[in-house]
Amino acid sequence: MAKVLQSELSPTGKPLTVTEMSWVASSMPIAAVFGVSIYSYIADAYGRKVGVIAMAVPQALCWVIKLASSNTMALIIARIFAGIPAGGCFNLTPMYVKEISQNNTRGTLVSLTMMFSNIGLLAMYSMGAYLEYHIILWIALSISAISLALMWMAPESPAFLVKKGRIEEAAETIALLRGLHIDDKIVQTELEEMKNEEAHFVTMERITFMGIFKNKAWRRGFILCTTLLATLDLNGYFTIFTYAWSIMTEAGVTVNPELQTLSIPVLMIIGSLLSMICVEKLGRKFLLAGAYIISSLSICCLATILLLQKNEIVVPSWMPVVAIVTTVWAYAAGILPMTYVVMAEVFNFQVRAKLLGCIVTLGWFISFVQLSLYGTVSTLGLHTIFYFFATTNLFGALTSMLFLPETKGRSVEEIERMLLGIKEK
To answer: Domain Major facilitator superfamily (MFS) profile spans what residues (predicted)?
Structure first.
């Protein structure tokens, strides 16, 4: 995106300045900040499925605006419409997938959503490299329409149905999702667990944010998940993804930087596949901590390469490429999927939308600040930024190893006891 918009081939008719590019890039995450609360409300009031469907509408408007006008202001407005559903995407999608999944498959299925997201990135990178600008917009608009039609046929989350007292419909949905008869023991057991959670919930006082934070397990889970998401957003990937072409050019890549940036989504897909294979075998904690360590080392190498080049020391052009793709691989294999898997597992369904909404809002705000300040801070030298990112990744590794409980295959009640420090007998 950065290369096209800052070139003579820019659809705006002129190259965007650094400031304009910063606004185009950062308008999406700041819109996402407001989108999170909108979709959290929709998910709690009208259903997870309705929330996911509602994400497709502003996304389609984004592509329509870009087709109708190509000036800088139109691009910023379009990015705002893209940002609103993006705020709900990383909140509602893991939540919905978690609530329709069984305990022994939820990690794999949440990781699967991340893999399909990476396949989408590969498609956009590839089209951006070889197709005309408006053709890409028409393809993207058609995808939004298709996703809207497919989600219309999807079932509602059983947990939400129980929450609304639609018990029979919830049982039918569980049976449909498991491929079992409605009277099967597995179906009835899952339904009873949800009903018991709801029964416990209704005996409590009206749930407010103050009440949530008075609950020690929820408070500790909120602090842990907020720390994990803040670390994820400051790990450097979002900056690399948005400014990949510029960073590779700055790093001295001479062999078609545009083509080499295609390695980013390819490595992300490979990382996602590894995550899907290992998440139910190795657990969340090991994968997350290991990915942070790898990411910290690779970003530190990239920062050192940039520093050496700034001092006119020649470094082989393949080295920054390896550092970047290793960082991206670690992000896709562990940091991104495991963070969202843990966030989806820690809270029960009565408070899940509220708390994840708060956490994801903070995450998008951090992304906005990071992108909006990138142009200014980069004047200090890219190596400075990436040394900061390397330190952040090291912090993420330590947090995962020292404070994160292993949530693999555990119920919400078991996870809450672990957060309270109660050991299993």
So the answer is: 1-408
Residue-wise pLDDT for 131-140, tens only, equals 887 888 899 8
Residue type, 213: F
Classify residue 61: in a domain, yes or no: yes
What pLDDT is recorded for position 293?
A: 94
Angle at 345 between CA 327 and CA 352, to 5 degrees: 110
Question: What is the C-alpha to C-alpha distance for residues 309 and 311, in angstroms, rounded to an integer?
Answer: 5
The sign of the CA dihedral 273, 278, 283, 288 is: negative
- pLDDT of 356 higher than 60: yes
Residue range 34-48, pLDDT digits in tens: 888 888 888 888 888
- DSSP line for 79-134: HHHHHHHHHHHHHHHHHHHHHHS-TTTHHHHHHHHHHHHHHHHHHHHHHHHHS-HH
Least Cα distance to 31 among 76, 64, 92, 67 occurs for 76
Q: Do residue 233 and residue 223 come from a single domain? A: yes
Q: Residue 371 corresponds to which tokens in the numbers above? A: 């992108």
Give me the helix-helix angle, 106-130 and 133-152, nearest 10°.
150
Contact by Cβ (8 Å): 379, 370 = no
Report the candidate in 388, 396, 378 with the shortest Cα–Cα distance to residue 334: 396
Query: What CATH number does the domain containing 311 carry?
Result: 1.20.1250.20
The residue with greater pLDDT, 65 or 117, is 65
The pLDDT > 70 percentage for the chain reads 83
CA 397 to chain CA mean position, Å: 18
Say yes or no: 353 and 365 in one domain: yes
Domain that residue 392 falls in: 2-154+204-419
Residues 30 and 44 in one domain: yes
The tally of domains found in the chain comes to: 2
What's the CA gap between 370 and 363, in Å, rounded? 11
Structure tokens at 222: 């909120």
Q: Which two tokens stand for residue 275?
A: 């995550």
The answer as to whether 279 is a domain residue is yes
Query: What is the Cα–Cα distance from 48 to 93, expressed in whole angstroms?
Result: 8
Write out pLDDT tens, residues 324-347.
888 888 888 888 888 888 887 887
Q: Within this chain, do residues 369 and 393 fall inside the same structural domain, yes or no?
A: yes
Write down the pTM of the prediction.
0.68
CA 108 – CA 90 distance, rounded (Å)? 16
Predicted confidence at residue 38, as pLDDT, reads: 86
